[in-house]
Amino acid sequence: MSSISPGDTLYKITEEYPETIPVFVSNGFPQMENREKRESFGRSITLETALMLKALDLKIFTKLLEEAVEQKRNSADVTLNDGEFSEDALNIAGLLPCPVRLPLMEQFGTFLEKYKETHNTPVNHELKAASMGLDWVQEHIEGVEDSADLPDLFISAGFDMFFDENKIGKFKKAGVFEDTTGLESFNPLFDGLDLKDPRGHYGMIAVVPAVFLINTDELGERPLPRSWDEVLSPEFEKRVSLPVGDFDLFNGILLNIHKTYGDEGVRRLGRSLLESMHPSQMVKSDRKKDEKPIVTIMPYFFTKMVFPGGPMEAVWPEDGAIISPVFMLGKKEKRDALQPVVDFFASREVGEVLSHNGRFPSVHPEVDNRVDGDKKFLWLGWDYIYSNDIAALISRCEEIFNEAAGIEGSPLPDLNSPAAAAGEECV
């Protein structure tokens, strides 16, 4: 764990942890990319002062820095040897949302110490930050033909990976996985949504809500948009910023818009696009010098980075925050051996980390999600999921969106960019 302090100068931080440089650069400190400017500018200002000037939350930004350090050095992980799974061990893998990965890894480490005292089965795990999603999936999931080559337990957010039959979807269809979370009832926050998989394959542990951030200075005489239909109106064409690079959440948005508004709704969403931004950039979009977005659509977590008293106002959609599920898939044949690990990830304690640290509401019935009970959610629904080819539908929606937005090719970001290198594609 790094020891980054609010009183440290930017120069001290980047000298000790050079992997933090892309985090600073992609969050409004371009001078930190240049060695000479780091020495002059960086020596003269502390982290606390720099973030105060940029109106960025100190606690959350420090977590981003620490995540970049931890991800680079990877000293906390007990990873799979050479990417191979062991037949004699439980193999746990997945992608964890960046804001909660560190505390979850700490809890998981404590759990494993106790687990080893009473179990002889070794546990290998490779739980990466969501920012590594595309590379990790391509390396470990795509093209796998034998379920024995898959992890015994897999955790991730979104729809693309779990329903694509070139990835995990074909194994789910073959009955390889079983939900053993044992949660017969979900958190009352989700009453009426029927989040539990009726076929018993997918275990859901939390959701990632998408909400609006409104730049009231740019809003002008327009009424404050409070629903998805209003955001999709002509008034906001080319004035909306979307998390296009966050493929888990973006696909959830595309699917829900298509379910409610059809192809035309996806076109309206495409026409609304001003630019794609990472949520950590969205919260400071009011300081852009060129045309600024009026509406940014982002995970609920990142609204907490907004500096109080500024022009950015968070709005929970009246018709519901679109949610991307955090799924857990465990192999049926390993049920007995896996159960303690499944119980850990489905526990109230993990639910509280997801909810309280990351603003990812937990489905556990005993977790206080700290979200007002009148807030609504938009969920695709299992009937819709099982009656559609989700991977094909995502592909179709992307094509419609790209054409309307004037984007050529895939909307996914350049993984070699400084933002991606810093973990900027996190959920």
Helix share of residues? Answer: 25-40%
Structurally, how many domains make up the residues? 3
Distance between the termini: 21 Å
CATH architecture of the largest domain: 3-Layer(aba) Sandwich
CATH-defined topology of the largest domain: D-Maltodextrin-Binding Protein, domain 2
What would you call the structural class?
alpha/beta
Rg calc: 21 Å
Topology as a string of helices (H) and strands (E): HHHHHEHEHEHHEHHEHEHEEEHHEHHH
Tally the helices: what do you get?
18
Strand content: 5-15%
The CATH superfamily of the largest domain bears the name Periplasmic binding protein-like II
**Main beta sheet strand tally, sense and closure:** 10 strands, mixed
- Low-pLDDT residue intervals, each spanning 5 or more residues: 75-83, 277-289, 410-427
Description:
The protein is an alpha/beta fold. It has 3 domains: 10-73, no CATH class; 81-207 and 323-383 and 417-421, Periplasmic binding protein-like II (D-Maltodextrin-Binding Protein, domain 2), CATH 3.40.190; 209-321, D-Maltodextrin-Binding Protein, domain 2 (3-Layer(aba) Sandwich). The chain has 18 helices and 10 strands. Strands 1, 2, 3, 4, 5, 6, 7, 8, 9 and 10 form a 10-stranded mixed beta sheet that branches. Helix 6 links the parallel strand 1 (90-96) and strand 2. Helix 6 runs antiparallel to helix 15. The longest helix is centred in the middle third of the chain and has 26 residues, at 247-272. The radius of gyration is 21 Å and the shape is globular. The chain starts with 9 loop residues before the first helix and ends in a 6-residue tail after the last helix.
